[in-house]
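Appendix B. Raw example, untouched.
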Amino acid sequence: MSPATFPAGDWPLHVTIVPPFDTELDADTVAELLPRVPPIPVVAAGRERFGAHRTVPVTVLRASEPLHALHVAVVDALEAAGTVIRDQRHLRDGYRPHVTDQSAGRLHPGEHVLLTELSVVARAPHSTRTVAARIPLAPFRP
């Protein structure tokens, strides 16, 4: 489980489902928008460098229909609720699931991981980030 608050430059190891977005909605409302899906197995594929200057080391994940479907469903739900996702290049067909190297570690090619929750991460004062909501990935049962 990731810490509740962490420095902006020292995220826990994670898969980004949606790039940063702006919204007037509170974290609980955002969490309610997110689809309830079963845990998603992913496999680390290869090492690359992302960012404008190719300086951010990442491990790209193998193509996964459940992961891509989750990404699209979250983007659609957020946009329908009026959020503004700044970087449109990395949405839908431009989505490249990856895990950015962190001080806590990195994924290695061939490594298998099971995604078991979504987190809504909010900016906090003093260059910190806060896990404002956690949503377990489990089949939704009414």
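End of appendix B.
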